[in-house]
Specification:
Elements (H helix, E strand, L loop, with lengths): L3 H11 L2 H4 L4 E3 L2 E14 L15 E15 L2 E6 L1 H27 L1
Antiparallel strand pairs: 1-2, 2-3, 3-4
Length: about 110
Amino acid sequence: MTSLPEKLAEISRSAGVKTAYGDPVQVDGISLVPVALVYYGFGGGEGDSVDNGAGSGGGGGGMSLPIGAYVKSGGSLRFEPNVISLLAVGIPFVWVAGKAISRVIRALKR
């Protein structure tokens, strides 16, 4: 049986460009390469406790958000965004930025 750090290293090796960019797909003579925003998080633990006798732990998770695709047709290449996903990412960002700017303005008025 492999240990937790070895398993986490194996999983993180597979994370990279191939997870953010999908394999090219041909549709009616047009090439599409899907693009996603991908991130992972891992945790773990292990140990022996004098009082309890043993310990263990572990956890992990990840998320993939499709943000669009590169489209190649007739010699031109362009990025076509997935508007719904970009709004899902953009709205919280705009809200946080607005709150930060309003606090800066309030502090400057004092």
